[in-house]
Amino acid sequence: MAAVEVEKQRGRSAAVAIAALVIAAGIPLWWKTTETYRAWLPAARISELEALQLELRVEVEVVFARGTLSPEQQKKVPASRMREQQQQVDDKTGLKFTYETRFRTATVMEEDALNQPTAAEADHALHTLTETSCGSVVIYIIPEASALLPQDMRVYVGRSRTALLRSQVASVVGAGLPEVLAALDPQMEQVLQTMSFNHQDVTAALTDRLRPGLSTRDSLADSMRAFKSSPGYEITFSLLNPDPKHHQLHWDVEAALDAYIYPLLHKMAPVANFSVDSQILYYAVLGVNPRYDASASAYTLSADSLAHVINPVEARLGSNAASSNPVLNFLLYVPDSLHSPLIIRNDQKQEVASNAFHSPRWGGIMVYNVDGAYGNDTQFPVDIAIDMSRVMGVFLSQLRLMLGFQQTGAPPGFVLEAAGREGVAEWELDRLLWSRSVENVATASASITSLAQLLDQIANIVINDNIAQQVASAVTALQAAVAELEAGNLALALEHSREAISASERAFFDPSLLHLLYFPDDQKFAIYIPLFLPMCVPILLSLLKIFREVQQHRAEKRAKRD
Amino acid sequence: MTYVSLLSPVVCVCVSHFVLIGRTSAFLLLHQARAERFFRSDHTNNWAVLVCTSRFWFNYRHVANTLSVYRSVKRLGIPDSHIVLMLADDMACNHRNPKPATVFSHKNMELNVYGDDVEVDYRGYEVTVENFLRVLTGRLPPSTPRSKRLLSDDHSNILIYLTGHGGNGFLKFQDSEEISNVELADAFEQMWQKRRYNELLFIIDTCQGASMYERFYSPNLMALASSQVGEDSLSHQPDLAIGVHLMDRYTFYLLEFLEDIHPASQANMNDLFKVCPKSQCVSTPGHRTDLFQRDPGSVLITDFFGSVRKVEITMETINLTVPGIPLERFGGEPHTETALAYVDQLPVAQIIHQKPKQKDWHPPDGFILGLWTLILLVFFRTYGIKHLKHIF
Fold first, then answer.
1. A357 and A364 Cβ atoms separated by less than 8 Å
2. Beta-ladder partners of A60
3. Quick one: which of A163, A265, A383, B77 is 20 to 30 A from B55 by CA?
4. Residues of B marked as catalytic
5. What is the mean pLDDT of residues B207-211?
6. pLDDT at position A372, please?
7. CA A274, CA B361: separation in Å to the nearest integer?
8. Which of A99, A106, A65 is nearest to A80 (CA)?
């Protein structure tokens, strides 16, 4: 009996020990080994990014030329002033525009420069005198009687960051400097909105963060036309020759690119990397049949048929298979001899001067007529050299549109100097840098916050250490970019914002972030029950038995005592 | 009801043909309407992801479904670079195919949808749930080529077409795995978070297809399915020469509808919802538009199936013709071109003119030693050890 008792005791202690092992060691082990590895993300800093308060600071220098200020006003200059404009775009995004203005009088050399006969030469001379930093604006106030500007124009915006503003404040005797400044304010505001940024541009750049539907129609058209900010772009120039039997085309595209396109791309180097290539396609036809118009004795393409031109051609265009950057295509189509000359008509049935059209976020096509280069009885094929400067003029303007330089809509009374051979004026580039920095900041913050939200929402995504590292570096770069924008250093802000966006894109699109297969609950039970039930049932039953025996023993003891 | 549904595409075609040919004021009015349409649908490019999730010969009809939609989408203008086609691609060259290199979608071999310009991006065993989700969410390894990626942006309209065998809440991929409707909804949400689409049209032709779009929760999604939960999608017609069913009913009638659409057509989504009513399809097609912001009646078929580009006339040009100034080379002097040649793949000079190389002597390796030891052992075992003195 004692042996049976000992046996029973051993059995009981064995059951209890096994149960204790299972509960104390087994369950935590199972929990630990079946959980997904999630590295720690800086959640606090990420939630700070949700509410974005952007401050954009512009340094403005206002230089008064001789004759614009009375002597007692001149004594008060140099002065400085700061003006702020606050705007709440939506409940999570706020904007503040700060204009830090410094006033001074012109130096002798600047006066000499302003004495040039035309505004363009004055601008050129002024440009050689001072070195303006990226993002700043210099406004020269010239007297009302000055002959630099034509009579009805008030403002001249040059190719660098300077503007000439004709002062309309006839120096009222007795007026102090503050009154003069107050009178100049609205005009200066207009100049700054043209040369730096205005509310519409910045709101358009913030569309990634905003709810859809907040942007206006014009800004929607602009945002649809230009490519989104990307670390690199591929530009392909193609020559389409449908008729090699008659036309032997020569285009010196390398020299033309060197002369006209590369300067612009070199200036845009802080914004993105560009890779340029060119190709020639033979026997490539447009997908649309042009109609012959006897009145113009030419073949015409109407505006609505242009939409169907691109697709058949696009199938034959090559692209670089190695990169995933957006591609801009610029096609030069030389019509075949049977369909020459080919002109494009717009909606009002008028000829288009450039004979070219472009498609948003795709590129442009130009039709180049060569029928004037040869007579009827020449020996075919005819050697034709294409005038690349004309072609590049059109492509350059299309490229500018695609890259985000808005169509120059000069406000009334403004003269905006055309960019010419450099491709882009410095202030236009500054405008682009402002909107690109804001866009990068908006996109990067939207990416990071949505990544954090997604990782919270979908519980079975593994977060590796490198993801956490990327996110942390993205957050750091983002905060640095916002700080630089506040300080007014545009170039540094752009650099940090590019870092932020590339880190956030890499984190978001990391291949390891694929969520594991979703298992509905009944499937989970179906997997666990055959594994755990045969093991748990004996343990539970034996624990129950032990428990009942202990209860019985206690009842007996109580009965014995009573 | 079938007459009405058949008549409406015909009416649309007539109207659009009249509009295109005539030079009346109606044409100009349509022009203005087209100009306004620049803002009505704010997409600038179109993408299509067409997936056939079955393999094996008896699932011929799924491949024919996908290829038919591929053909329509290409005909309406979407280029191959914007189509991600995932097929098991084992039909055309299957041993059982009596007409190799063809996949027919109509009986009596009327229409060969395989053609000679099919560009399959994911073929064979690459069609997996993981690859499909990676394509949708963009989380591909950096070495993936451009043609295998969905490079859409926030102004892209995407068409997603899935076909295969499915059930209530899942879709079977190649007989080995399945994708559930929750995963699909999560994938679309990830696409929305990163603004990888402007609007998305999801068409699924499987049994109980409506269960796959039940769980969607992201905006701007429109979904069509060939059958409701609890119903089976049926196939259309077997071909006795090929021996299998060639198409599924829903896709067959969808294709008939799409054959009447051309790039300038004005047919809208309400016509698409009427495709294949219960009398033709036996199952009840369903659709879901509550997540879509625009009214389906104002959404054109070509917004998703075609690729009608928006164009603008270039008004401004830059005057670069400054006479007398030569083109300066940017970046310094051009470097002289060195003549380039290919490296020899085989060292021909060495092979042809070499003397036989003196190979170093190696002692015989283990195998030879073992073989000879075995032979000797057998010999002496057979004939006795006394013969040893003849050897040594």
1. yes
2. A101, A137
3. B77
4. 165, 207
5. 92
6. 78
7. 60
8. A99
Is residue B352 predicted with pLDDT exceeding 80?
A: no
For residues B373-377, give the mean pLDDT: 91
- Residue of A258, A260, A324 with shortest CB distance to B146: A324
H/E stretch holding B378: helix B366-383
Q: How far apart are the two ends of chain A, measured CA to CA in Å?
A: 27
With an 8 Å Cβ cutoff, is A116 touching chain B? no
Burial class of residue A491 in the structure, from the number of CB atoms within 10 Å of its CB (0-12 exposed, 13-18 middle, 19+ buried) = middle
**Number of inter-chain CB pairs under 8 A, A vs B:** 188
The answer to whether A396 contacts B320, with C-beta atoms less than 8 Å apart, is yes
Of the two residues B351 and A477, the one the predictor is more confident about is: A477
H or E segment at A367?
Answer: strand A363-367
Q: Which two tokens stand for residue B194?
A: 């990163």
Q: Confirm if B233 and B209 have CB atoms less than 8 A apart.
A: yes
The residues with which B173 forms a beta bridge, in sequence order, are B177
Q: Please give the pLDDT value at position B332.
A: 46
Between positions 373 and 412 of A, the ones with CB within 8 A of B are 387, 389-390, 392-394, 396-398, 401, 407-408
The whole-angstrom separation of Cα A447 and Cα B251 is 38
Helical packing angle, B129-137 and B181-193, nearest 10°: 20
Mean pLDDT of B294-307: 90
Per-residue confidence (pLDDT) for residue B52, from 0 to 100:
95
d(CA B308, CA B40): 13
Contact A160, A426 (CB under 8 A): yes
Alpha carbon distance B56, B58 (integer Å):
6
Nearest to A335 by CA among A400, A247, A270, A234: A247
What pLDDT sits at residue A113?
A: 82
A354 vs chain B: nearest CA distance in angstroms?
A: 7
Q: Do B314 and A360 make contact, defined as CB atoms within 8 angstroms?
A: no
What residues in chain A have per-residue pLDDT under 50?
Answer: none
Residue, of B265 and B49, whose pLDDT is higher: B49
- Given an 8 Å threshold on Cβ–Cβ distance, is B263 in contact with A393? no
The verdict on a CB contact (< 8 Å) between B309 and A362 is yes
Closest CA in chain A for residue B43? A224
Rounded distance between C-alpha atoms, residue B129 and residue B174, angstroms: 9
- Model pLDDT, residue A144: 78
Chosen for mutation from B317, B325, B327 (greatest number of chain A CBs closer than 10 Å) is B317
Structure-token pair, residue B282: 């036996």
Report the C-alpha gap between A277 and A256 in whole angstroms.
13
Contact A397 B190 (CB under 8 A): no
- Cβ neighbours for B223, distance < 8 A, ≥ 6 positions apart: B201, B202, B203, B204, B212, B213, B216, B287, B288
CA dihedral sign, ordered A195, A201, A203, A205: negative
Segments in B167-217 forming alpha helices (H): 181-193
Nearest CB neighbour to A364, from listed B35, B149, B314:
B314
Q: CB–CB of B81 and A319 under 8 A? A: yes
- Other Cβ atoms within 10 Å of B297 Cβ, number: 10
> How far is Cα B126 from Cα B121, in angstroms, rounded to an integer?
9
> Contact A263/B330 with Cβ under 8 angstroms?
yes
Which of B44, B149, B330 comes nearest A224 by C-beta?
A: B44
The one-character DSSP state at B333 is S
pLDDT reading at B270 higher than 60: yes
Most confident of A85-89, B9-13, B18-22, B48-52: B48-52
β-sheet bridge partners, residue A416: A157
Handedness of CA A538, A539, A544, A546 (dihedral sign): positive
> How far is Cα A528 from Cα A45, in angstroms, rounded to an integer?
39
Separation between Cα atoms, residue A502 and residue A496, nearest integer Å: 10
Q: Are A342 and A371 in contact (CB under 8 A)?
A: no
Q: What is the residue whose two structure tokens read 């800093």?
A: A45
Q: Residue A516's closest CA among B218, B125, B180, B135? A: B180
